[in-house]
Amino acid sequence: MQKKIGVIWGDCSSVEIVEQAVNVLKTIEKKYSHSFEYIDIAMGGQAIDLYGDPLPSHELDKCLSCDSVLLGAIGGPKWEGLPGEKRPEKGLLRLRAGMGLYSNNRPAKIWPQLADASPLKKEIVDKGIDFIIVRELIGGVYFGNHETHEENGELKAIDSMPYSEHEIRRIGKIGFETAMKRNKKLCMVDKANVLDTSRLWRKVMDELKKEYPEVEYSVMFVDNCAMQICKNPSQFDVIVTENMFGDILSDEASEITGSIGMIPSSSLGDGTRGLYEPIHGSAPDIAGKDIVNPIACILSAAMMLQYSFDLKEEAKDIEKAVNAVLNQGYRTQDMMSENMKLVGCKQMGQLIVNEI
Amino acid sequence: MQKKIGVIWGDCSSVEIVEQAVNVLKTIEKKYSHSFEYIDIAMGGQAIDLYGDPLPSHELDKCLSCDSVLLGAIGGPKWEGLPGEKRPEKGLLRLRAGMGLYSNNRPAKIWPQLADASPLKKEIVDKGIDFIIVRELIGGVYFGNHETHEENGELKAIDSMPYSEHEIRRIGKIGFETAMKRNKKLCMVDKANVLDTSRLWRKVMDELKKEYPEVEYSVMFVDNCAMQICKNPSQFDVIVTENMFGDILSDEASEITGSIGMIPSSSLGDGTRGLYEPIHGSAPDIAGKDIVNPIACILSAAMMLQYSFDLKEEAKDIEKAVNAVLNQGYRTQDMMSENMKLVGCKQMGQLIVNEI
Ligand SMILES: CC(C)[C@H](C(=O)O)[C@@H](O)C(=O)O
Ligand SMILES: CC(C)[C@H](C(=O)O)[C@@H](O)C(=O)O
């Protein structure tokens, strides 16, 4: 199979993990006789340094000419003082919108080898943590109007949070379809006692649910959900929610698995072209030290093979290799525990390559 | 001391807890020779049933004529289908705004007797959980414009999230003042990489912090904060944040203490008149069964004595009584564990009254 893969090297320690993920992809390429072309793309801090813009249109165009895009993570203290439009994060938001990636899938799953790293009690973890948050990614307050103006002699800022029916319907469908492939439970999270957008979500979801009679559908307020994720995470199968709530809840959900350095994510739109990236950030504090965990990025590459290129066997191969290396007791610093073997980013990548 | 106390009996199981809290207040009244007048106020579902409006202006006026107001909790399935303006919650929001209560204080604190009930691991709990979330209560998306209209043949909803400098400054001050009375650490939580309102919060807080050089001030993104509350809650002393983030984070924070049935809250404005209520909801599923935990409501009454009436000794007296009853092993169902003595709502209230 011939594919063009966009590679966003990202900022700070991101470069180190992307390097390992690309090594893994190259290994898969050889083993299965595929031919992947890697296109370097600058986005975030790197693009600001190069072009004074976190996502110049020529870089977005490159992404759109690829079959899929792999990303590490962006941002860092160097770019923190910049105004809204010039921040690294703005590049990511524009990339999501420019590629039409409305559906962000964030699995929250315990790796048995790392179960001890969860901040939750064993009795809660033992009931199982294995759910997916389907987050709407290019609507809501992230993409509404933002403005700051003077009023009565002081500044006033207003962010607006818009949602229209078709935006809700397309992500709602992904929620139901995801549930159908899993345990057929879908929970929609909102704040319908306060927000008009949430009430519109309820209306559209109520219409959609008729098309999925097998799915056990429920609704939950976001404040309650933030509690339930700590209290009783085993109740969840698939959660679908709007952009901002999805941001907050998926971070909480990844934390309770105790393995945030292990969690990949996919962002997809209507076609098969996607953006694949770890859940974690660019970890500026440990950049250049060869201690960052490359596994979330490597698993993101695996997700790309599976969901964008339909290369299921290849994806499984990577996951098995990761599993094997963990079983052999190798750990990066972030997941280190007693009696395990501490390795750096490069060595972890190499171990996984060797397994493949 | 003579005081007029507004009493909102609330909906579902709320009535049962308010009854116990009023009994406790009456006991304090006698013991310390105060004279409290209790004014019944209808708000929420009860007001909808009586007047077709969750907070008629005559009921708000009654609140404004009182020295302070005690509330249980409102809402329930009976009123769920109603349109936005007619919901029980709207009464609460209008009450907060009408009384000018911009500062909501929500303590997250482990009760040593209930430490086992936390969903977090013992090693995390043992480091200590004792922080306060200061939530802005009458601004942001709760009080912005909400609208739904037709556009391009479909419905579109927009919620707007406004903040102006004076709204941020007054709550920011409360944040710093609260930190000064505690361990002098203040963390402001926002989403400044996305929201204009958050960037305005940063500007105002940066100005304010100069007036509090002793306070160690930091900022954190809301998604990261949702993780940190699970991972390392002992890092927090005081968190200050906008309305919606405060809603989500304070629920998560109360959950990790494992004692949500024990957590009171205060809402204050510029004067001493406040609204005091438990963090938990109206628990419709257990209404009328005499099993709801009245302690959060009783402790809310204690907070009222302390913060609105400056009756510190009386407040301490109530807290001590609660502590003693817990030490004697009495528990309501929600906090029941092995070898403890199960009691109902009424008996729990009576035990606390007896202690006083
Ligand atoms: C970097 C930031 C804008 C982004 C978001 O909030 O979407 C990040 O937190 C994420 O979740 O991918
Ligand atoms: C009932 C609801 C509107 C309210 C809120 O979101 O403020 C509640 O969740 C709370 O936190 O007091």
From TrEMBL, chains A, B:
Cofactors that this protein relies on: Mn(2+); Mg(2+)
UniProt family annotation: Belongs to the isocitrate and isopropylmalate dehydrogenases family. LeuB type 1 subfamily.
Gene: leuB
Residues of the site described as Important for catalysis: Y142, K191
Known EC number: 1.1.1.85
Gene Ontology terms describing biological process: L-leucine biosynthetic process
This protein's pathway: Amino-acid biosynthesis; L-leucine biosynthesis; L-leucine from 3-methyl-2-oxobutanoate: step 3/4
Task performed by this protein: Catalyzes the oxidation of 3-carboxy-2-hydroxy-4-methylpentanoate (3-isopropylmalate) to 3-carboxy-4-methyl-2-oxopentanoate. The product decarboxylates to 4-methyl-2 oxopentanoate.
Subcellular location: Cytoplasm
InterPro entries, per the entry: IsoCit/isopropylmalate_DH_CS, IsoPropMal-DH-like_dom, Isopropylmalate_DH
Gene Ontology terms, MF aspect: 3-isopropylmalate dehydrogenase activity; magnesium ion binding; NAD binding
Subunit structure: Homodimer.
Source organism of the structure: Floccifex porci
Reaction(s) catalysed by this chain's protein: (2R,3S)-3-isopropylmalate + NAD(+) = 4-methyl-2-oxopentanoate + CO2 + NADH
Top-level taxon of origin: Bacteria
Protein name in the entry: 3-isopropylmalate dehydrogenase
Entry keyword set: Amino-acid biosynthesis, Branched-chain amino acid biosynthesis, Cytoplasm, Leucine biosynthesis, Magnesium, Manganese, Metal-binding, NAD, Oxidoreductase
